[in-house]
Amino acid sequence: MELEYGDVSNALNDICKEFYAALLPFRNPYLGSSSVKIYSDMFDSCPYPDKEWNECLRVKRITPLSGYIGMVETFSSYQILQQKDPAAAERLSNEARTRLIAAMKVSSPDAEVTVVVKYFYWLACKP
Questions:
Q1: Which domain of life is it from (predicted)?
Q2: Structure pTM?
C-alpha cells in the first residue's frame, strides 16, 4: 500500500515502508516478504494455455489517516505482534501515526489521505 497526500507522498511512503519493515519479522514465514511469488508460481504451474497475469492493478481510496492505521492494524503480522507484545504494537502504531501527521503538517489523524492498494491477479480459462 502507498499513501498520496499533496507533495509529501514520498515522505509518507518512506514512513510506511519503515512501519511494514517493523512488522516483517511477524509475517508468516511461508508467505515470505511478499505473497506475489506464491501466486506467480501458481500461475506458472497452471497448464491452461489461455491465462492472464496482471502484476499491478492500482485502486485508490480516500480515507482518514486513522483509517489507514486501522487497516494496517488488521494485518496478520500486526495481530501477531499485538499478541506477543501489546505495548510494542501500540507503540509502533502511535509512532507511525505521529510521524505521518507531522509529515502531512496536520494536527489530526482525521485528515484524509489517498490510500493506493496494489492488487495482482491471474485468470485462467479451462480449455
A1: Eukaryota
A2: 0.84
At 3, is the secondary structure helix, strand, or coil? strand
Please report where in the chains the cell 502504531 appears, as a residue: 93
Helix (H) or strand (E) holding 111: none
**Which helix (H) or strand (E) is 28 found in, with range?**
none
Region of 105 please: left (phi>0), alpha (psi -120 to 50) or beta: left
State the cell numbers at 103.
Answer: 509529515
Which residue is listed with cell 492505521? 69
Query: What are phi and psi for residue 122, nearest 5 degrees?
Result: -140, 150
Summarize pLDDT for 50-82 with one digit per residue, the tens.
999 998 899 999 999 999 999 999 999 999 999
Task: Report which DSSP code applies to 88.
Answer: H
pLDDT in tens, 9-29: 999 999 999 999 999 999 988
